[in-house]
Write a structure and sequence with these properties.
Blueprint lengths: L1 E2 L8 E17 L2 H13 L4 H24 L4 E13 L2 E15 L1
Parallel strand pairs: 1-3
Antiparallel strand pairs: 2-4, 3-4
Length: 106
Amino acid sequence: MILTTAASIAGHRIVKTVGLVRGNTVRSRHMGRDIMAGFKTMVGGEIVSYTQMMDDARGEAVDRLAADAQKRGANAVTDIRFTTSAIMSGASEILSYGTAVVVEPE
């Protein structure tokens, strides 16, 4: 599966557009992480546990996007984008979406 944020894939041509595909996950904060993050805000700097949590969430959203595309018969996804939104206090959704296509080498 080829995944890209670009509209085209070098060395390939799009032979079929399958359509919009997406993958998402909702993650909530952890009380232990919140306590450590509170201490970190006093001294400044990156809150590594939250950075890792969001990175894991983006990876899961992309994996689900790729699975959706594969299930629909695509072998690539172009124009991939991400959005993040607060669902409720302490919980966020990561959504990835793009255009599922069938490509073949030029």
